[in-house]
Design a protein that fits this description.
The complex is a heterodimer. Chain A is built from five helices and three strands. By secondary structure, chain A is mainly alpha-helical. In chain A, strands 1-3-2 form a three-stranded antiparallel sheet. The radius of gyration of chain A is 22 Å and the shape is elongated. Chain B has one domain (2-249, 257-271, 279-316). In chain B, strands 1-2-4-3 form a four-stranded mixed sheet, sandwiched between helices. The chains are: A mainly alpha, B mainly alpha.
Chain lengths: 124, 317
């Protein structure tokens, strides 16, 4: 159940990110109902949770709220990745080892090494 | 005497041993063995230091009666005949020192494990929200414009690849890199790294633990490369590494050099012959000696004394 709710959070965020404008629970619900059977209260609960998590902002409109992502998906991803990987002092958390970058000298040394073993091209 | 020997070994293990191990040329040819050796060296240093303290504390009248003395002390304690006042203040202090060494090591590793677990849970929640599962790749694909490939260890272990990495790598290279990540997960490398990290934090002044951490970080990469190379051409792993290591560095990564990346690429292109059987056995024997050595030194004289005493009694019966 927790898993399903997590998936729903992701689906709803994706929808909201794709709209590029504030939307009501009713609007998201109708969008989701094109693919699946889902209750109004479920969508409302998940969106309220996303608001509490700080992913959405909302403002009252009539009797309900309209919701909008706080930042774009790209910006959110970048922020999350920065937080997770910049602290790679803790190697045990995420094993992100492909962060190393070669400096120009090293690249030159590498080019020499690769001349002996021509790399297969992208087409391979 | 025993205490002095153990203490002397502890000093050797924390000062000279790391220098010897760093110089070992064979470590790149047998990274897994080298990892075991480093961990065993760390374990033996902690064991010998704490056992040296215990050996100092346990009251012994004659050299070589440690275990017999210890067992007698335990029995005395069970019989409520043990008088704590009989032990000198020095003895208590030594026991306290032994406990502190062990507690410090355990809490250092524990702290790292807990922090890593929390961090991974946070990251997993973010991946659930932003990533999508690609069952063909067996990995989470994350829409992100830095080419990154990594894994998230733990109970719900997953491999992660960004869309930028997918764009810049040929499919065969993607498979090779993911095999490398799978090797990290299967090898439980995060636990090895947590131990190394935890010990280096617990004893920051001792070069053994700092060097062990640095070497282990490097060695797990070499090991994962070797495992990936069992099913993927080495040239693919090298090419993937080149591609990932020469791309634009993510803005948030501090300008770390590609020392390990370079060594890994070279190693994939010019594979060294693996260790011969005899060399491997020697290495394993060294690991075994490091692990049981301190305990053996602490216990053997006592054990022989015990046998001498009590077998003598047996003969009398």
């Amino acid at each position: 159940m927790v898993r399903a709710l997590g998936d729903l959070e992701s689906t709803i965020m994706d929808r909201l990110w794709s709209y590029h404008r504030p939307s009501s629970v009713r609007h998201v619900l109708e969008d989701l109902r094109r693919d699946r059977e889902i209750a109004y209260t479920t969508v409302m609960t998940v969106m309220d949770k996303l608001y509490k998590k700080g992913l959405l902002r909302r403002q009252p409109q009539g009797k309900a709220y309209i919701y909008e992502p706080l930042i774009t998906k790209e910006a959110y991803t970048a922020q999350q990745m920065r937080e997770s990987l910049a602290r790679s002092g803790n190697q045990a958390a995420t094993l992100a080892h492909f962060l190393e970058r070669l400096n120009p000298e090293e690249s030159k040394a590498l080019a020499a090494a690769l001349q002996v073993f021509p790399l297969p091209g992208r087409e391979s | 005497m025993i205490a002095a020997a153990l203490a002397a070994y502890a000093v050797f293990a924390t000062t000279l041993l790391p220098r010897l191990l760093v110089r070992a040329q064979w470590s790149d040819r047998a990274p897994r063995l080298a990892i075991s050796l480093w961990l065993a060296a760390c374990g033996s240093a902690i064991a010998s230091a704490s056992l040296a303290a215990v050996a100092t504390a346990v009251p012994t009248d004659t050299i070589g009666h440690e275990l017999a003395g210890l067992i007698e002390a335990c029995f005395a304690m069970l019989d409520n005949e043990f008088d704590p006042a009989a032990m000198s203040i020095g003895g208590w202090l030594a026991l306290l020192a032994a406990a502190l060494i062990v507690i410090r090591a355990a809490s250092g590793v524990g702290t790292v494990l807990i922090a890593a677990h929390r961090e991974r849970r946070r990251h997993a929640a973010m991946l659930r929200l932003l990533g999508r599962r690609d069952s063909e790749l067996g990995a989470i694909v994350l829409d992100y414009d830095e080419p990154l490939v990594y894994c998230l260890p733990g109970r719900h272990a997953k491999k992660v690849i960004t869309t930028a990495a997918l764009r810049s790598l040929a499919p065969a290279y993607v498979a090779a890199v993911l095999a490398h990540e799978q090797a990290h997960l299967r090898g439980r490398h995060h636990l090895v790294l947590a131990v190394a990290e935890g010990l280096s934090r617990a004893f920051p002044r001792l070069s053994l633990f700092a060097k062990a951490k640095k070497e282990i970080i490097r060695l797990v990469e070499l090991h994962a490369d070797d495992v990936a190379a069992r099913h993927h051409p080495r040239i693919h792993i090298a090419a993937a590494l080149v591609s990932l290591a020469t791309s634009r560095a993510p803005a948030f990564v501090l300008g770390a050099g590609g020392e390990t990346a370079l060594a890994r690429i070279r190693r994939m292109l010019h594979p060294a012959t693996p260790l011969r059987r005899r060399e491997k056995l020697t290495g394993m024997a060294a690991v075994g000696m490091l692990l049981v050595g301190p305990a053996a030194v602490a216990l053997l004289p006592g054990l022989s004394a015990l046998v001498a005493h009590h077998c003598h009694n047996l003969f009398l019966l």
